[in-house]
Write a structure and sequence with these properties.
The chain has two helices and five strands, in the order E-E-E-H-E-H-E. The chain is an alpha+beta fold. It starts with a strand and ends in a 14-residue tail after the last strand.
């Protein structure tokens, strides 16, 4: 059985523009965050997904492992966690005509 480790999850606002997911970071912004403990990558992804779906808005989840070493497969499992994406506003000069 996988060892339980502590993680911190932060949700950053995101939306979809065409085929791209765009995340907006603001300096000194406040974002929803949660501390959790998970045993293994499937358990971690399930908990992060539940947290993001309850949040309900388009977001990118940033997961940080609080242990000294990341568990095997951590980077691959957590690098592209986007949830609830909808089409965002597109400026007229960026639109493809």
């Amino acid at each position: 059985m996988a060892q339980s480790r502590d993680y911190k999850v932060k949700l950053y606002p995101a939306h979809k523009e065409g085929n791209f997911a765009v995340t907006k970071f603001e300096a000194f912004g406040t974002y929803p965050e949660k501390s959790l403990s998970a045993a293994g990558m499937p358990d971690l992804i399930d908990q992060v997904t539940h947290f993001a779906l309850v949040h309900g808005e388009g977001c990118q989840a940033s997961v940080r492992c609080l242990a000294l070493r990341n568990p095997p497969g951590f980077k691959k499992a957590t690098e592209d966690l986007f949830f609830n994406l909808t089409e965002g506003p597109v400026a007229v000069d960026q639109a493809i005509i």
